[in-house]
Design a protein that fits this description.
four-stranded antiparallel β-sheet, 292 residues, six-stranded antiparallel β-sheet, globular, mainly beta, 2 domains, Trefoil (Acidic Fibroblast Growth Factor, subunit A), PhiA_domain
Length: 292
């Protein structure tokens, strides 16, 4: 939902017009405080539900978010815990490395999609890692303008059950989804926060089948490797599970060269899925051929 200037009159003094995405902070949730989010939508299936993180997306009413949490007795934790950085970054409360950070896509293509990255995973050109803020006790995205804050939508029938959560960009059917409803994301501070690592979506491996992209993160190298491949922040290159990339197979052959001929003829290009190869060339001394 969009919040107007009138709605946030109490926070007008904190809002800097020259910087439309400034980050006012509610004093009940300070920078670094861990909190979880409860959805408020009276008369709906998502009233008083907890925001969850699962396979790089945010959800409500999912049976199991399948997170891995620290501490005895925390195996069945089914809500996500967050904290805000001083720059307005919204992070999942993980045990340390790898960090997991929330992003949004307000573009025409993204239509308010929300996800989170793990480790050194990059985001797309139109995606944004914030700023987020807690205003009047509610988690919002700070977008600036006459309606400086955006709330959230919940859309039913998500893959695997529950509601998928999207940023409210004014669309009632983001990505063609129907039955979506807006909700207030009430931030509730945790006195005894639990650290969890949240799942990544499966990705296709070299054979075309899906494998879990839990991967691993190396703080020393700054690289993140998933089950199907690896991403290197230093080189910016990506390699699949096979470790190589090859262009469309094209064969090349050189025409035989005559001893005393001044002309050259282009040989036909073979349609073979092999590597580059040269045709035999006559040996001027012996007349025999040799190949590469």
């Amino acid at each position: 939902m969009q919040f107007t200037i009138a709605t946030i009159a109490a926070f007008a003094a904190s809002y800097v017009a020259a910087s439309p995405c400034s980050v006012p902070m509610d004093t009940t949730i300070a920078t670094g405080n861990v909190f979880h989010v409860m959805s408020i939508r009276s008369g709906s299936d998502i009233q008083y539900s907890s925001l969850q993180a699962y396979e790089n997306g945010l959800y409500l009413n999912k049976d199991d978010q399948d997170s891995t949490c620290d501490g005895a007795g925390n195996e069945n934790v089914n809500y996500a815990s967050f904290y805000l950085s001083s720059e307005g970054g919204l992070y999942l409360n993980t045990p340390g490395n790898p960090p997991q950070q929330v992003y949004v896509d307000r573009s025409t293509e993204g239509q308010g999609s929300i996800g989170y990255t793990t480790g050194a995973q990059p985001i797309g050109a139109h995606q944004e890692r914030g700023p987020f803020s807690v205003v009047d006790g509610n988690l919002v995205f700070v977008c600036g303008g006459e309606s400086p804050y955006s709330g959230f939508l919940a859309c039913p029938n998500a893959v695997g059950g529950g509601y998928s959560v999207h940023l409210d960009t004014g669309l009632t059917t983001p990505a063609g989804l129907t039955g979506c409803v807006g909700f207030v994301a009430k931030a509730l501070k945790e006195d005894n926060p639990i650290q969890c690592l949240y799942t990544d979506a499966p990705v296709a491996d070299a054979s075309g089948s899906d494998s879990a992209a839990s991967g691993s993160y190396s703080a020393a190298s700054g690289s993140y490797s998933a089950a199907s491949g690896s991403y290197s922040a230093a080189s910016g290159s990506y390699s699949a599970a096979s470790g190589s990339y090859s262009a469309a197979p094209v064969a090349y052959s050189a025409a035989p060269v005559a001893d005393d001929s001044a002309s050259y003829a282009a040989a036909p290009v073979a349609d073979a899925p092999a590597a580059y190869s040269a045709a035999p060339v006559a040996d001027p001394a012996t007349g025999s051929g040799y190949g590469y």
